[in-house]
Amino acid sequence: MNPRLSPARAGAAVAALCALLAGCAGTSASENGAGGNDNRFISGNGNVTEFKPGDRKSVQDVEAEGLSGGRHRLADLKGKVVVVNFWASWCAPCRGEAPSLEQVYSENKAKGVEFLGVNFKDAKENGKAFERKFKVTYPSMFDADGRVTLAFREVPPSAIPSTLVLDRQGRIAARVIGATTYSKLGPLVAKTLAEK
After folding, report:
1. H or E stretch including 17?
2. 82 in Cβ contact with 75 (< 8 Å)
3. Could you give the CA distance from residue 112 to residue 109 in angstroms, rounded to a whole number?
4. d(CA 62, CA 118)
5. DSSP H helical segments within 26-152, as ranges?
6. Cβ contact 152:56 at 8 Å
7. Which residue from 7, 11, 13, 21 has the least number of CB within 10 angstroms?
8. Cis before 161 (ω within 30)
9. What is the dihedral of CA 103, 108, 109, 113, to 10 degrees?
10. Structure pTM?
11. Are 131 and 138 contacting, i.e. CB atoms less than 8 angstroms apart?
12. Closest C-alpha among 79, 78, 88 to residue 148
C-alpha cells in the first residue's frame, strides 16, 4: 500500500477537515447550557463607528436579571456615560478584550463612567466563571435568549463581542464591532465624557 495520498484524496481530506471544524464553530448554545437555536453572532473586525450628537439613536429602556443576581436597568444610569459590552464565555475575542475593558472601567469609574456587560446566549455558570477568571468588577445583564440585545436594534451590535458607548442622554455615541482594545476604547470614553 502506498503511504502517499493522491491529490484527489488529499483534497477530500482537507474538505472533510474544514467541514468538521466548521461544525465545531457552530455548536449550538443548548450544548453549552443556554438553550435555543444557534443564533450566535459573527466575529467583528474591531471597526469603530462614531455618531455625531444629532445623528445618535436612543436606546430603549432595558431591564434584565443580573448575571450575579439582582436586576439592572439601563435607565438608572441616565446622566452618566455608559459603556455596554456584549460578550459570552464561549467567545475567544471576548476573553482577549476583557483585561482592556476592565482597565478602562477602573480608570474612569471615579469620573462617573459606568460599565454594563450583556452576557449573550450563554449558560449562567459559564458567565460567572468568565467574570471570576478575568476579574471583571462591573455588572452584567444575563441575556440567555437574546432579548436584551434586541433592545439595541436601532444600532445593533451585530457581532460578539461588540461595545457601545452611550452619552449622558442614553444615546449611542460610538460602536465597536468586534474586540476592542484599551487604546481604542479609552479615547472613545474620554471624548464622550468631555461632551457637555
Report:
1. helix 7-25
2. no
3. 5
4. 11
5. 92-108, 124-133, 147-150
6. no
7. 7
8. yes
9. -120
10. 0.77
11. no
12. 88
The CA distance from 195 to 25, in Å, is 41
- Rounded to an integer, what is the distance from CA 39 to the centroid of its chain? 14
Alpha carbons 186 and 93: distance in angstroms, whole number = 18
Selection from 191, 189, 157, 171 nearest residue 46 by Cα: 157
Q: What count of residues does the chain have?
A: 196
Query: pLDDT of 136-171, one tens digit each?
Result: 999 999 999 888 888 887 666 668 999 999 999 999
Q: Cα–chain-centroid distance for residue 6?
A: 45
Return d(Cα 186, Cα 196) in angstroms, integer. 18
- Amino acid in position 138: Y
- What does the alpha-carbon distance between residue 149 and residue 141 come to, in Å, rounded to a whole number? 10
The dihedral formed by the CA atoms of 16, 179, 84 and 196, expressed in degrees to the nearest 10 = -150
Would you say 68 and 139 are in contact if contact means Cβ atoms under 8 Å apart?
A: yes
Contact residues for 128 (Cβ-Cβ < 8 A; gap 6+): 67, 68
Tell me phi and psi for residue 71, to 5 degrees: -130, 150
